[in-house]
Fold these 4 entries.
Entry 1:
Amino acid sequence: MKKLLFLITSLAASFSFGQNFKASEYPKGVYETYEDFRSKTPSSDPKLSEAYSTDNTAYRFDNLDNKGKREKKAFAISDGKGNLYIHIINLIKKFNADDRGQGVDGGIYYLKAKNVGGYLFVKDYFTSNSAAMWGGLIAAAAARREKVAIFEEEKESFNLFKNTEDFKKFMEVSYPNISLELEKQGKGDSKESEAQVIERNLAKITPVS
């Protein structure tokens, strides 16, 4: 009886938290606000440049209908080709309460979203603002690490995983039936980062159909 109850509880958790993000469901255009993004309704469809980046992390767009000026404010941009980009500062503003106090040092740009385990998933290099405040630039640089954020639809916020322990707590609550493998794989320069470990384990979630 206890085993049956555990199975039912585990399945219920999986279904209640499961998502299936699809960038293709966002029509081409600019999503000025979070509400536009949430409703998948673009505010406008100006002529934008192709997304460009020097590091395959921070993407930028030029508005060709506005003298080629850089697009800096929209919450999200869809290129109509199955790619969705989220504004870094607006994303940080939508962090849940436990994840606030994180900063970036690369200016204003967009992160390319993808589906991992059904979730809208992005990665970037974040620094704890408290580290910068108390330790100065050297401490801030040392604390700057690649971290993962996912969008949780039911909470209408982005959940930032600061490390594998943070991710483990999320999985134990949301997907207790999934076995995690949190040891870093590989050696030397090919050894996984914490962000890669989290991505690999998040991918074990079966997206809702």
Note: Confidence is low (pLDDT under 50) at residues 1-16.
Entry 2:
Amino acid sequence: MVVSINAVDDNLAAIIKAKRNILYEYPVADLYTRKLNYDRLEMSNNIKWTDGGSLNSDASYSEIIIPAGTTNCLFPLYLYSNNEIATKNAVEVRDIPIRGLSPYPYNLQDTFISSLKNGLKINLSLRFSVRINRLFYVTIRLVKLRQGGYDNIDAWGPQYDPSENWDPVYEVEYSGEISLNADEGLALHFWASTGIGDDLAITVSNFEFWATFYGREEPVFIDVISPITVLNNLLKSMTDSTETYSGLIDDYDPRMSMDRLSTSYIMAAESARGLPNAKLYTSYKKFCDWMEAEFGYVPVINENTVTFMHRDKLFTSTVVKDLGTEINDYEFSVNDSLIYSSVKVGYDKEDYDSVNGRDEFRFTNEFSTGLNLRDNTLSLISPYRADAYGIEFLVQKRGEDTTDNDSDNDVFFVSCDQDGVNLKLYRAYTPSQLSGLLSPETMFNFQYSPRFMLEANKKYIGSCTGMLKFTSSDGNSDVAIDGVKETDDFSIPERLFTVSEVEVETSDINSPDDLLGLVSLNNRGRTVIGYIKQIKSYIGKAKSSSYTLIVKDIKK
């Protein structure tokens, strides 16, 4: 790939070449940072219970014993050990042992789930079969406990006819959304019209009981760093001298522009976790790889300055020199290193402990170019992460006793908007423009999806193909942004140059002033225009120059 153009082979270029792979460690407290008000990602919470009866030998049913002397009795429920409650500040859930009530639930401790905040919406589903093992009329009630009393939500019981023998078997089934405010909860209990004289056995089978809800934790502040700050600290670390070196990013204006780059801020994983002595770990190469894969920007090294520019700007459309027909030794070749059979774009796949992570789409997508000349893959993989769930899961670990985490050395970046003296997440799309997500209202970093990375590099990719065909994805492949799916084929109508090269010799020894412009020549009636890859000047009796050009176009 075209990674950099060295206008002058100076000392800075040599230093960078030698030290670009060194990983540097920066205490975040020593860097200039901004405070991001991270307002959290809404998470799906899934909770399951099993009934608290005693299983029979083949586990086909369980038996619950209602103790003698009770009228109302809590239905025993026990939580599964693998439940996922990502939003810790929203609910309390508990095991419910069998216990008699007189005359109905009064205490939140009688509820299998209770709310810690107002306006919580819980989707509750339950279904199972019940058999009363002797003819004693017992129903099951689902109630909502509130301040000062309770409301019946639903009830189930046998079809009872006092003049005939009645069937003691009945089905319990419910599915619906229930709203709870703080200090309100749900309870399930047996109810009998009269006190039970002797212990009563209830058989329960085909038991399913679960609740889901969406919740969002409280906002936190996270230190974030501008790309310019990171770049200049890397230059300072690599040069380690009294010379003044500076790093610039073309068209980077966070105060005025809302483009993908200008809204980007870098975040250390340890800052997301809230560690008191958070550090940022990165190298110049990782910074370069991020800028190139994410934004199509490459470094131009000139004297004491490194300027990151979009690759397209390095290839102008102006012809700066015409060699005409005064050429010799015309040689045409194909640079097969630029012929790719596939393109991998995005980010390395992350393995999450949470089922919510299945919603993440900022991983690796792969596309086919349709070319089969050689097995060569163009990799546009960012070493910095943009996965929103990765950030959320790290923030959830704040306050935990463990000090080490697999992601602690990772570097993230987020799209931010100005919010007074602080920053807030920049959500560039409305929920109506998004589909295929659990929570489009709170999702962020859409503009860093793999498809936008293709967009940033499309003219370079276009050197070998005009169309990319989607083949696979490591993440959520159902996402669509503003009507465009991440799995759609990707058309490339323009290209920076072709994969062809031409080498010629000419008696014209005057090099063009602008080395980034086009050079033209005429060979057997065909006009060839291309960019300078290399110029060699031969000084002697027969003065001449040789040009190696990356072909832009050949015209009759």
Note: Confidence is low (pLDDT under 50) at residues 1-9.
Entry 3:
Amino acid sequence: MRSIHRLLTVVLVLVGTLTSTGAYGQGGATGAISGAVVDTSGGSVAEAEVQILDTRRESLARKVSTNADGSFVVPLLPPGIYAVVVNKSGFAEAKASGIEVRVTETTKVTISLKPGAVTEKVEISAEITSVETTSAATGQSLGTETVRELPLATQNYQQLLTLSSGAQSELNASAQLGRGNVRVIVNGQREDNNNYLIEGISATDYNVAQATYVPLPNPDVIQEFKVQTSLYDASQGRNGGGNVNAILKSGTRELHGDGYEFFRNDVLNANDYFLNAAGQKRPPIKQNIFGGSLGGPVGQEKYGLFFVNYQGTRQRSALSPGTQINNPGFPSLPTTRDALSIANALSTSAFPIAPTDIDPVILKLLQFKSEQFGDPSGFLIPSVGTPNLDPLKMTYSTAPFLVSKPGKYTDDQFTANWDREFRGARDKVAARFFFSDSESLLPFGAGGLQASLGGTLASSISATDLNFPYDIPVHGRFFSVNETHLFSPRLVNDFRFGFVHINDSLINVPPVTVADVGINRPTNNITKSIYKFTLGSSGFQMGPTPPADQFQNQNTFNLVDTVSWVLGAHVLRFGGDYTRIILDKLFPQTFNGQLFFVNNPGGATDFQKLVVGAPDFSFGGGGVFNHQYRNNNFGYFAQDDWKVRPDLTLNMGLRTELLGAFYDDLCHIGNFDPQLANSGKYPFVYGGCANQLKVAGLSGSGNNTTYHNNYTTGLGPRLGLAWDVLGRHSTTVRGGYG
């Protein structure tokens, strides 16, 4: 860590000493205002004083002067609503209000001055650009009003990501349990190739790089969020998909608050067609999302502004309305489950079964009582259809078997934000804290009767499997501090520190355990779940949800620094970021084991083989399943936004990234070297820490990192242009490469 600290210190010193506008500087969590000041004839007004006022705080945010061509630019502004006040000797003071600055965007204004006394004040309607004309990047920014007013069944703002061009996702079922996670694909990239940020700080789940468990503030906390889909500048990197950046609200000079509840209940719903046909009641769907916000000054604004929010979610929803089991691979079973009755029901002339042939573990399983799948006789393995048909042949059910069972979801989240200005607004500090604890209990696991409703991990699992429940507790924390310092009106530094904590588990809640049925297995001390049973003739499965129990604990530390320097027709930005990833995992993937049974033409059926305990093949996991992954990532960039002409802007940048190789503090990973394999040598390579494990025949060498990154340059050029075709800020042609 000392070497990392020294390297960061050197980089930040170099960044602070680099020298090089209407161009446009904005960091990953800020925006900018650029514009021109003209007289009534359209001529440029040089050396005019331009004040940028923060409407929310009613304070001066920045003060600059126009260039010789009457232009000005104010970079690294926090997103919000601003007013622009212009003063020039011989002209009346002009003020334009309601100028919105959005994250990563530049708002362009043109202000016309009228002759008059300096003391005369004129409120004007400035010409504000509605189309981004200064950047090649494409994307969509959504503000508070849009996020709050568009219908969101689970209050998940990320369901709005597809409003951006090039972004798409699957449709969520209305009965889906939880916060309604979306799998977003941007311009054909993989769903795990997106960057998720809060306040410019990486909040990505580095285990899967998806939005599944990232900290997710509710819409009442979101000031705006931006989705960049392509051609973003050199300040952004790592993944090539979309950049999703959420900006959180801050307080105002006056005390404001609100309260809310979003309510859904099955009394407002019509019943499902299939449940009606079976004479069953509509499934319970009860959802309450409630909360409130409060914001205002701390000590009459002496100590800054605060904003707090709480939101709670309580959901109880049936995950299987109308889902039915009508599987030809599942036989009729007797309502009396003694060995003789089972043997008589399942024995055939091709494969006779005596009571003593039944495997004792399977017999206990067939006799085990549980309400998991709603069997009328109370057995875990249900009796579908009409039992005890012709004992000379295998009889399979064709009658539908309906199951509707509610799942439960709870979530409590809290947000606390604080903002304060120092030294006459030359320094601004913003702190953000977000806390969330949620838990999902899925009665049919990852697949089973939830699969048809778009549930977690459900896409590859049949909707008619009999899967056991599992529990998903998720704990998310987010903390960030941002300090913006004005060295001068044209030289601004933006520094951010962030910490993200994600702790999630997938815990099987088996209705039957290995101890209940007498399974003796080497991995019983790791998982209590029984085997997963698969009938090969139909692919029908029953048992614990794959994978077996797993746990993940991720702590991410992020440092980001950006310097913006306005020089003539150029806005130069330099910066870097450092990410430290600490990821601890317990992942006993298939330690419970899986048994497969297939039909033999003219002989035993798959279910008969199951009953006598004769699997055709099986697999299971074992060995090391705990890891402590560590990783360091560095990124550095330089960006020049050059306004070649009033209607043409070039965005030129260069980024380099050093993505460190993951290593395991427990030394539980190795690397496969194909060159060793091709030469007939032992192909696995282990780090030097392997010598400390004292395992016979296992040795290591070198440092503890066995994954090596041979791509050492990592240079990523970015080139883009934005052309204001008509010169009226209404039509833009963009292009670029990166």
Note: Residues 1-25, 320-324, 385-398, 448-461 have pLDDT under 50 and may be disordered.
Entry 4:
Amino acid sequence: MVNHGSTELPSDLAANFHYPLWLEIDRLLLSNNTSLWPHFLQNHSLIAAAVFRLENECEFLNQLIKYNFSVELIGYSDWLNAVNACNKFWIDLLDGSDAQDMARLYIKGRIEAILQVAPSLSTVMAWIEYQRWDDLSESVLEVALAKSQDAYNLVDQLWQGEDSLLQTKLLRTHSSVEVWPSSKLFTKALNAFYKKSPQNIQRILDQSNSDQRRVLFWPLIHDYKCAVVNLPVLCGFWSMSSVPMAWWSHHPERQRFIKELLSFDPIWFQVAYNQGCKIALALDAHCEFNRE
């Protein structure tokens, strides 16, 4: 039973879908009871697990929106762990020759629900489907092509030329807009990401500062458009890395600003986030996968 005077939950709850406690959590989260929400909103692995474990995932995702939580701030590793736990749960439960196929259908249904709410996660989910079932989506093929040629071609698509994604998906769309969401959050987030990153990612970020041919982000960091332009790319890159995204939950204003960016231009956020994911994959800055 959940202790209503406390938000304490078992430390391995996200990894174990067999806990009977999930049934009570299902009831509490989707009622007007708010006792568990503060704990969930600080625990990305639990949120990812809940999307795949709770009975009504769409209602849960809508509740997250109500609490100003963006699922784009959940890292690939948390999503992957949730999928692995879900897969194990259904195979254990069904215990038949078609258990794998049934688990796969269930997981794909949940992924579709996630992408209805957050299309920015299409590359994250495509990579999970590729790693688990060898599904070859367009984004996976784009990463493979970039790796076979030059991974920085994906960066050039963002910034270089009149037909760049920046020009066609953002700047021209808002050419007459004078007031943009503005914040110094990009610099703070990039510094936080760098400090927590392993050496291979730090080298990539160092090259981005020192070599014009290896610049990952839009270089006009003092421009008032910087946060809108760069933060979705950084969030996508970060999400595919091994660096936990918990930093975003430490202060509510960080999550609020991401919601503001999503409201300002959801198409640009989606495009830039996905491109950041692909860049991380092409540069081998992503989490390693262990098939379970």
Note: The radius of gyration is 19 Å.
